[in-house]
Structures are given as structure tokens and as C-alpha cells.
Write a structure and sequence with these properties.
Blueprint lengths: L1 H21 L8 E5 L6 E5 L12 E5 L17 H9 L5 E5 L5 H5 L20 E2 L1 H5 L9 H11 L4 E4 L3 E6 L2 H24 L7 H8 L6 H13 L11
The chain binds zinc ion.
Zinc ion binds next to loops.
């Protein structure tokens, strides 16, 4: 039983990687993790590899400080600290995505806020903060490469679901991997719609009540599974799916 829970988590990380690649959320860069299902002080994340290519054997257990468990010496992602810092700050968070999706980038460098405007994106939250690494760390290469920077980013995220990273990308925190993937796929779509709508003129965003109407959806809701299954099959890894929870 214990082994099957862990095995499922490893397979789900592979599925999540393949989906994000297939849906164009990540390219050679970007990553996704899940909190260890049996030890909340660890998380599962691939070694440094493009998400489209990630396999079961690439997934490594890390402690929240970003150290590989068991002395795995394969190069890890430089920005793995994003994951551990968010898990450390937010005990309820079970999955984290970091990506550089192009459609989101204009909102990381402009003063126009990214807001949910389409119903599929309502669960990205009413407020999407923008974190600027320069505020605390001055001129850097913009990458989050240590725990101090990761924790600063986690503070920027606060209690929200998504934080934009100035000139860089975004980090999303969710209650499950299917939820994290759903948010990460619809976040760029919402950004594209908002950008197009602003070209046309005034924009009507979702109201707080409309956003909250979706907030009651559980992370294991059948609607969440429906998208996860669909995207997994589309990404060619339907064989890795386990039975619906
Ligand atoms: Zn990055």
C-alpha cells in the first residue's frame, strides 16, 4: 500500500511533466513537483531535464532545502528552491509548477494586473501578485537559485495560488497535481484572452463572487480528473494513469 502510494506519486510527476510540455506551458525549461505523499518534509522533482523527456527514473526526492535524499549526484534544476520554499511556507500545498509561459510574461513587466477573465481560469485567484527579485537581491540573473530567494518568492506568493515573477515567469501552488496542471494550462490562456480583450477596449473581469463560486471545487473533483486524464492521453502517457481517486 505504502509503496503503491509512492509509486503513483512518481508516475504522476512524469505525467505532469509531459502534460505541461505538450500543452506548451514549458519548453526546455520549467518544472513541476509534488510533495512526498508519505513525508511532508520532502518533495519529488525531476533531475535537470526538459519536461517532455522526463521519465520515472529521472524523479528525485529532495528535502525542503533542495538537497537530494540519498546523495543522488545527477544535476538538479537550479531553481528547485522555488518548490521547497513554497512547501515550507504553505503546509496545505501539495504541488508546485514553475514556468516561463510567454503569454504571461507581459503581465510580469507591466503595471497592468493579470486578472481572471474567463471561467476556466477563475481558480487562479482574484489577486495575482508580481514578485520582483530585484527588490531584495539587486541585480541577479533573475533565477531563484537559493533558499533565501525561494523564501522571498514564497512571501510574495503569500496566501495566493499564483505569483508572477518579474521578467521571468510564474509559480503556481495547488492542492494536487491535477489542480496545479489545470491552473498552469489555463493561466496562459487567460493571459492571452485578457491581452486580446484589452486591444478591443474596456475589459470586464470576473467578479470576486464569480471567482469564489469556483473555489469550492475539491482537488479530487471529477471535473479535475477529466482534464488530467484528457491531457495525459493527449501527451501520450495515458498508460501511466492510475485509477481515479
Ligand atoms: Zn525560471
Amino acid at each position: 500500500m505504502t509503496q503503491s502510494v509512492l509509486d503513483k506519486a512518481f508516475r504522476d510527476v512524469v505525467i505532469a511533466n509531459r502534460i505541461l510540455a505538450n500543452e506548451g506551458v514549458v519548453d526546455a525549461y520549467g518544472h513541476v513537483s509534488v510533495r512526498h505523499p508519505l513525508d511532508p518534509t520532502r518533495y519529488l522533482l525531476s533531475r535537470s531535464r526538459a519536461p517532455e523527456l522526463v521519465e520515472r527514473g529521472d524523479v528525485i526526492e529532495f528535502d525542503l532545502e533542495g538537497k537530494p535524499i540519498g546523495g543522488d549526484t545527477r544535476p538538479p534544476y537550479l531553481e528547485r528552491f522555488i518548490h521547497g520554499a513554497i512547501y515550507e511556507a504553505r503546509p496545505e500545498v501539495q504541488a508546485v509548477v514553475h514556468a516561463h509561459a510567454e503569454a504571461v510574461l507581459p503581465f510580469t513587466v507591466s503595471t497592468t494586473p493579470l486578472r481572471p477573465v474567463v471561467h476556466m481560469a477563475s481558480f487562479i485567484g482574484a489577486r495575482i501578485p508580481v514578485w520582483d527579485i530585484r527588490d531584495s537581491f539587486g541585480d541577479t540573473n533573475l533565477l531563484v537559485v537559493n533558499m533565501a530567494q525561494g523564501r522571498d518568492l514564497a512571501r510574495g506568493l503569500g496566501a495566493e495560488r499564483v505569483v508572477l515573477m518579474r521578467g521571468h515567469g510564474f509559480a503556481a501552488a495547488a492542492r494536487s497535481l491535477p489542480e496545479a496542471i489545470r491552473m498552469s494550462v489555463y493561466l496562459p490562456l487567460n493571459a492571452r484572452v485578457l491581452t486580446e480583450a484589452m486591444r478591443l477596449g474596456e475589459v470586464k473581469a470576473l467578479s470576486r463572487g464569480e471567482i469564489e463560486a469556483h473555489a469550492s471545487m475539491k482537488p479530487d473533483d471529477p471535473a479535475m480528473w477529466r482534464a488530467w486524464e484528457y491531457w495525459a492521453v493527449r501527451a501520450g502517457c495515458g498508460d501511466l494513469l492510475t485509477a481515479r481517486p
